[in-house]
Amino acid sequence: METVKYEKIVNRLIKSKHIHESVLFIENMSGDFSYKNEYGGKNIDAPLLMASITKLFTTACILILREQGKLSLDDKVTKYFDSSILSRLHMFKGQESTSKLTIASLLFQTSGLPDAYEESKNSIKKRVLREDMHITFDEKITLTKQLKPHFAPNNLNRAHYADINFDLLGKIIETITNSSLEDVYKSLIFEPLDLVKTYLPRDEHDFTPTIYYEETAISRPKYISCCRASGGGISTARELMIFSKAFFGGSLFNKDVFYQLEKYNKLQATMYPIQYGGGYMRIPLNGIPTLFMGKGELVGHSGSTGSFAFYFPQEDLFFVGDVNQMANPALPIRLAMRLAISSK
Questions:
Q1: 239: how many CB neighbours lie within 10 A of its CB?
Q2: Which residue of 30, 57, 249, 313 is 20 to 30 Å from 177, comparing CA positions?
Q3: Bridge partner list, 39
């Protein structure tokens, strides 16, 4: 019965504007329930751009290194950078607050730092839509310094989604391990889980999938290779399923840590109804967006290009896939919510 409902939801999505290809893969933790829907030449083994789902991989590395005793979530961010790099990064109401930033501030998106990708008249996003481009970590830091922070670090009940938080985490991981982020992902995640089609492009010559913006297919290998810890990963629906089960099931790190990570704050209004915990999104299903028809929550992450990887603990179901449409970042969120509500 549920599969019929899923079919209807996906068919409605496919008929909507601008969906040229999509893939949906649903399983429970044990894998004895499995459903897939493939459209427009996309299948569960086809490469997809993870975009911000990559943040889950960065989170996993942070939690594994924490378990190994190599970092604490209370560590000051300034511990891992030359002072000249971070100087005046967080200037709030004329006060230098950079020294108050911790690894937890970045992981929980409670740093208050602005998002250079979305914010400002000439945001990174606007530039990327026009052309492919390289942007270095130092350039991202400079752009962030040109924007005003939204609040003081660790302001209770406040979170603001900004890629720079995870760009900083990626650099911290490299400093601690004395390795490239690509190699750390490989040793801590890809090899233990036997993920052979999941990777972080090292440069523009590594394959990156085409992304759709409305009717236009665009290729952005230069930019994607610069996103790294905040959004540069490539995977498949099948391998994202393996990773999602490992992330929430305790195969990569002790899942007791979720007790600390389950402190959720609302994000900026443009991201409603998404909340953010310790390195992942939470979407409550019992509020206005579902007309109070849902129960429980979705936890995981979506990507701005249409990718998604969510766990629905209430029914023990994982929803992963991609609708590959950059013009409407809310699409994968709405799809996952509809699938969860129909899984009663």
A1: 22
A2: 249
A3: 22
143 exposed, middle or buried (CB, 10 Å; 0-12, 13-18, 19+)?
buried
The alpha carbon of residue 3 and the mean position of all alpha carbons in its chain are separated, in whole angstroms, by: 27
Contact between 311 and 268 (Cβ < 8 Å): no
Say which DSSP state 188 is in: I
Rg (CA), the chain: 19
List of residues 6+ apart from 175 with CB closer than 8 A: 80, 81
Do 227 and 311 touch, CB atoms closer than 8 A? Answer: no
> Is cis: bond before 209, omega within 30 of 0?
no
Q: What is the pLDDT of residue 293?
A: 61
Q: What distances in angstroms separate CA 83 from CA 99, 220, 257, one per listed residue?
A: 10, 32, 31
Model pLDDT for residues 282-311, shown as the tens digit of each residue: 999 986 655 546 689 999 999 999 999 999
Closest CA to 112 of 125, 126, 96: 96
1-15, 209-223, 251-265: which has the minimum mean pLDDT?
1-15
Amino acid at 43: N
Residue 298 and residue 311: Cα distance in Å, rounded?
Answer: 6
Percent of the chain with pLDDT over 90: 89
Q: How far is residue 338's CA from residue 344's CA, in Å, rounded to a whole number? A: 11
Task: Please answer whether residues 13 and 263 qualify as being in contact, where contact means their C-beta atoms are separated by less than 8 angstroms.
Answer: no
Residue 284 parent element (H or E): strand 281-284
**pLDDT, tens digit, for every residue of 173-210?**
999 999 999 999 999 999 999 999 999 999 999 999 99
Other CB atoms within 10 A of residue 215 CB: 9
Residue 19: both structure tokens together: 């969906």
Longest dimension (CA), the chain: 60
* Whole-number pLDDT of residue 87: 96
Distance between CA 324 and CA 48 in Å, rounded?
8
| Phi, psi for residue 180 in degrees, rounded to 5 | -75, 155
Per the structure block, which two tokens stand in for 45?
């083994």
Residue 116 and residue 143 in contact, taking contact as beta carbons nearer than 8 Å = yes
